[in-house]
Amino acid sequence: MVVMMLDALCLFFAFDLALWKNLGAYHEAFSSYASFYAIWVLLWIITALFSNHYNTDTLKRVFSLVQSTGKVVLIHILFVFVYLLTTPNYLGISFLIDAYFFSILVTVGAKVLILYSYRLISNKDENKVNFIIIGYTSTARKLLESMKPDQKFGHQFYGFFDDSYLGESYVVAPCAEIEAFCKKNDINQIYFASSTDAQLMSRVIKFANNNYVRFSVVHDMISIPYKEVETSVFNNIPIVSGRNFSNPPKVRFPGMKGLINSFRV
């Protein structure tokens, strides 16, 4: 919602710049050109929503941001062209070119500025997320792989803890040293693989609660034969549900074949 409002403000500024360059008028977006400005912004935001432009993964990378904005502009041009065919042609092609140029420049520039500001703030020592993962499981390793882009935003990985895999890469110490390691390295986030020892989990949860460390459980999804899952909590009991993607059974009508044969006689 915040990024949508930012886009609306940026588009107003870009629209005003285009009017100033072509007509020499300031703050005319809400006067004689108000209806076209409203259509311009609504089409832009609707297109951005349907093309997943406001997705977090898109906004985290400059290349994805520019690529997604290009897609929005192409679809927006098509809709604006159709709209102009049904209305009086009172806007020149030079105005439209300037409007698109300033819209791209201002919206992308504002998002890039916010992106780098967020990176700067996230990488301050007081905002960094220093985390460890307990349990060297396949799901835990996939979690670490998916969190690589977050390293630019202050997420720093300090290693795995698993007594059964002490010789593996990234496994830094046995589980007996978790508490001392967390205090020494200022760890403020612990991920715990659900297939690891339950007694160890109770110990680490108690330590996390007493030291203001965020604690999260990583469900082992490898054995679940579903493409998508969702987790619900009932009385502190996590329930993992999956969706069945098999085709629904075909509905058969017993008397349909006989009815068809009766018409053939």
> Radius of gyration in whole Å, from Cα?
28 Å
Which bin fits the share of residues in helices? 40-55%
Unreliable stretches (pLDDT < 50, length at least 5) are: none
The pLDDT mean sits at: 82
Number of strands: 7
How are strands sequenced across the largest beta sheet?
3-2-1-4-5
Largest sheet: 5 strands, parallel
Provide a count of the helices: 9
Net shape: elongated
Q: What portion of the residues fall into strands of 2 or more residues? A: 5-15%
Structural class: alpha/beta
Order of helices and strands: HHHHHEHEEHEHEEEH
Termini Cα gap: 65 Å
How does this model look, in words?
The structure is a single chain. With 265 residues, the protein is an alpha/beta fold. It is built from nine helices and seven strands. It has helices at 2-23, 34-50, 56-59, 62-85, 93-122, 138-146, 178-185, 198-210, 256-264, and strands at residues 129-134, 155-161, 171-173, 189-193, 214-218, 229-234, 237-242. The strands form two sheets. Strands 3-2-1-4-5 form a five-stranded parallel beta sheet, with helices on both faces. Helix 6 links the parallel strand 1 and strand 2. Helix 1 (2-23) packs antiparallel against helix 5. The protein is elongated, with a radius of gyration of 28 Å. The mean pLDDT is 82.
Summarize the structure.
The chain has 265 residues and is α/β, with parallel strands linked by helices.
Annotation keywords:
alpha/beta, 7 strands, 265 residues
